[in-house]
Amino acid sequence: MEVLQVVSVAAAALVCGGGLIFGVVKRVNEWAYVSSLGRQRAALLPPGDMGWPLVGQMWAFFRAFKFGRPDSFLARFISRFGRTGIYKTFIFGSPSIIVCTPETCKRVLTDDQHFIPGYPKATSKLMGNRSFHGISPAEHKRLRRLTAAPINGLEALTLFVSKIEDILGPSMEKWTESGQPVALMTEMNKVTYMVITNILFGANVDYDMQKMESLFYDLAQGLISIPINFPGCTYHKALKARRELVKILRANLDERRRVKNKKERAIEEKDVLDLLMEVEDEDGEKLDEETIIDVSLMFLLAGHETSAHATMWAAIFLKEHPEILQKLKKEQEEIIRRRPPTQKGLTLKEMRQMNYLSMVVDETLRRGNLSFAVFREATADVDIDGYLVPRGWRVVVYLRAIHVDPENYSKPEEFNPSRWEQTVKAKAGTFLPFGGGSKLCPGMDLAKLEMSIFLHHFVLHYDMERLNPNSPMVYLPGPRPSDHCLVNFKRNH
Questions:
Q1: Is residue 100 a known part of a binding site?
Q2: What CATH number does the domain containing 193 carry?
Q3: Where, by residue number, does the polypeptide cross the bilayer (predicted)?
């Protein structure tokens, strides 16, 4: 018994001593980041936890997202420090300020003078120096102006409708004819990838599509990884994928330049890459090759990953709520009924008449929470709600918290498209699936268009049954069932 008591006392002492040491280490770590600000400025920082040396709160972040409890990460800050809506921490390799209320998020996203893109090293490196993630505010404004029309203009979206239908229709039929279960997430990734490559490169793409999909998958996995460039690490694999993709895009540009005496093609025959090569600013300056490549990679990645995830979740939510599915189906049947008998396929005008479908799409984006955050960097000391955001610190605009907060949405866990009826005015800053301000995601309209066209055909002609409705969730880089939503996909009887 005495031996057991001694062992127990020793164990308790080790635990207490270890806890004391860990506490001291964390305090020293916080002092290392905060002391450089000076006593007066440091006193104005918001409450929070800087975590451990070098890694900060990254282990806590990955633990929450990897083990199916993504909301627990921010919940720990709220429970410890109160609902201040702003917290200090160290995450993604930088001392950071987390903002997570509509007011604080809106303030950061709309203040271009004091907040510039400040993405983690892995994201900035993988997306490229000339993508929207890594350029100055003036360059961002110029580049966005030059690239908006080819991807989001009215003329472009009108042309995209038929392109999307021509790819989506045969794909959905193929799923039904196989007679085998299909992974909806995987198949939608293939479809949205074919759509964005068709839009960017044209219909006659001779790339190894399977290889390209694999490269983009590796690239996407590395965007929020720890930037360790060592074989076997996610970031190393993503860098390798980027190099391969850049090589493919550069060869494509070289080939286009080598083609001489080519007749000028009509606008409807041109792809986005043609337009990016031709566009000029007010001084007659064209985009350089590095910019074209980085913007193309950004369009290719964002143009299929987000759309595929969102479309999968829309189908899941509709199947879980048959009354909503039936209401949407009635709207789509009415669209078809009003259509002239000679018309083949959807038109952009029809798409804009689908009011309930638009609400389903917005509710999917809110409830699905596809992107947990966007990132900025403070260019000067900024006061937010009486707290200091120090110059040079990263600001994590925590979108996920906005969309699931009961103070912003009644019963936020429910899938309820009717909450978006025109009589209901959403509070500013409470709906940010594509970010906000001047840096709103440039592919937003295309993503919504792809979702809408799929849902139009899905509710009218198809049905699906999930084989593993209780499949565990994976939350990085985007939320999805671990089985990639395995379903029996079939035509309606």
A1: no
A2: 1.10.630.10
A3: 6-25
